[in-house]
């Protein structure tokens, strides 16, 4: 039944069943049939957008219940040996994609430390969007340097870390300071799982092949617009073993798109320290959105490969290398563009992705679509 009345009945049934599952979760885990009920319910919700949007909290609870159920794949249908690329270890779990996202904005206030030549420092509150000169002017006023000889403010030094460095150097301790970066990584993982989810929830072989074609086109547009982060996310979603094993579906794809996707796979190939990717991005002019996990990988290598202090002295060579990587990140940046009404509609859509991030569940969907594909 469609309409508000039908949606209300669906929501009531789901709420009742979730309460039952929560109450008897321990006992249900011992029954194989219970796991199938939970998984089938979860998949039905993922296909029913109105229900998904209407019960976000309950959907998140169901998502967590799916994680607690032991998902088994028959021995004769073991997944291929293809593994997720190691760079995904930088990504956090995607459960929070159903929760409210909070990012820093330019108007948000932060605390900055400004150091003096005598190694003392003053802490000042400032907008995130404030320039270095704005901050130094505020410090000058706070310390009443205006009465001092001209040029005294030149001795003030602002020490600020970008989020990338804080993420690598401080790990868990820097989580609040790296909120934007964490959201960016989470978003990349979410897009990857969204691609796989959309393909595997499409039951008609012809439409599924058309969906592959459309995602390859999207990847091409991302590359053309120098958004390599989204490009990687889409390609890795199509490269998911649960999707790539759908031989009958891929065979329906025109040769032109098969060849194009092979080129995309070569570009994302991590061999020789991502040589293909590094060559391509080195020829691009800003603005560019790089594949962020690779930057974190490089910074992690710099940080863990050498000590920050050697015999009690600062390792200047290491810090110069880190600074060079930060300058590369800054080079990619550009001014924001005003969004058109069409862009705002697209933005609203992509913020509501429905994704399945459980790899075993993706494989179960894959085997239901094509049981005998190799």
Write the layout of secondary structure elements.
Layout: H1 3-23, H2 25-28, H3 32-47, H4 49-54, H5 56-68, E1 109-115, E2 121-127, H6 132-142, E3 157-158, H7 163-170, H8 179-200, H9 205-224, H10 228-238, H11 241-244, H12 247-251, H13 255-267, H14 271-282, H15 292-305, E4 309-310, E5 313-314, H16 316-332, H17 341-350, H18 359-369
Antiparallel strand pairs: 1-2, 1-3, 4-5
Helix pairs in contact: 1-5, 3-5, 7-15, 8-9, 8-10, 9-10, 9-13, 15-16
* C-alpha-based Rg, rounded: 25 Å
The low-confidence runs, each spanning 5 or more residues with pLDDT under 50, are 70-100, 146-153
**Total count of strands:** 5
Shape: globular
Output the helix-strand order: HHHHHEEHEHHHHHHHHHEEHHH
Oligomer: single chain
By CATH's scheme, which homologous superfamily of the largest domain applies? Answer: Ras guanine-nucleotide exchange factors catalytic domain
In CATH, the topology of the largest domain is named Son of Sevenless (SoS) protein, Chain S, domain 2
- Spatial strand order of the main sheet: 2-1-3
Which structural class matches the secondary elements? Answer: mainly alpha
CATH architecture label name of the largest domain: Orthogonal Bundle
Count of spatially separate domains: 3
- Give the C-level CATH assignment of the largest domain: Mainly Alpha
Distance between the termini: 40 Å
In terms of DSSP E residues, the strand content is 5-15%
Largest sheet: 3 strands, antiparallel
* Number of distinct helices: 18
> Can you give the helix content as a percent range?
55-70%
GO molecular function, one term: guanyl-nucleotide exchange factor activity
Keywords: Guanine-nucleotide releasing factor
Protein name: Rap guanine nucleotide exchange factor like 1
Domain Ras-GEF: 146-372
């Amino acid at each position: 039944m469609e309409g508000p009345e039908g949606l209300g009945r669906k929501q009531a049934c789901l709420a009742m069943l979730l309460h039952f599952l929560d109450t008897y979760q321990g006992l249900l885990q011992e029954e194989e049939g219970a796991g199938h009920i939970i998984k089938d319910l979860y998949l039905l919700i993922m296909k029913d957008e109105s229900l998904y949007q209407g019960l976000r909290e309950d959907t998140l609870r169901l998502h967590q219940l799916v994680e607690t159920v032991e998902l088994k794949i028959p021995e004769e249908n073991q997944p291929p040996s293809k593994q997720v690329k190691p760079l995904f270890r930088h990504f956090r779990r995607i459960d929070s994609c159903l929760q409210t996202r909070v990012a820093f904005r330019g108007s948000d206030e932060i605390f900055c430390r400004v150091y003096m030549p005598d190694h003392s420092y003053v802490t000042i509150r400032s907008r995130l969007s404030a320039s270095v000169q704005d901050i130094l002017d505020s410090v000058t006023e706070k310390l009443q340097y205006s009465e001092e000889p001209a040029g005294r403010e030149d001795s003030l030094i602002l020490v600020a870390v970008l989020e990338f460095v804080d993420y690598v150097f401080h790990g868990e301790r820097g989580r609040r300071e790296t909120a934007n970066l964490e959201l960016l990584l989470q978003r990349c993982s979410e897009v990857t799982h969204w691609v796989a989810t959309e393909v595997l929830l499409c039951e008609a072989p012809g439409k599924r092949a058309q969906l592959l074609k459309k995602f390859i086109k999207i990847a091409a547009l991302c590359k053309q617009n120098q958004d390599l982060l989204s490009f990687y996310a889409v390609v890795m979603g199509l490269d998911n073993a649960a999707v790539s094993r759908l031989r009958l579906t891929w065979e329906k794809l025109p040769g032109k798109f098969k060849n194009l996707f092979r080129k995309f796979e070569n570009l994302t190939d991590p061999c020789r320290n991502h040589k293909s990717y590094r060559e391509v991005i080195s020829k691009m002019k800003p603005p560019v959105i790089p594949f962020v996990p690779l930057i974190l990988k490089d910074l992690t290598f710099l940080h863990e490969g050498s000590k920050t202090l050697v015999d009690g002295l600062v390792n200047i060579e290491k810090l110069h290398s880190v600074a060079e990587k930060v300058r590369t990140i800054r080079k990619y940046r550009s001014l924001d563009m005003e969004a058109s009404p069409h862009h705002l509609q697209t933005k609203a859509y992509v913020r509501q992705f429905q994704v399945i991030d459980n790899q075993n569940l993706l494989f179960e969907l894959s085997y239901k679509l094509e049981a005998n594909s190799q």
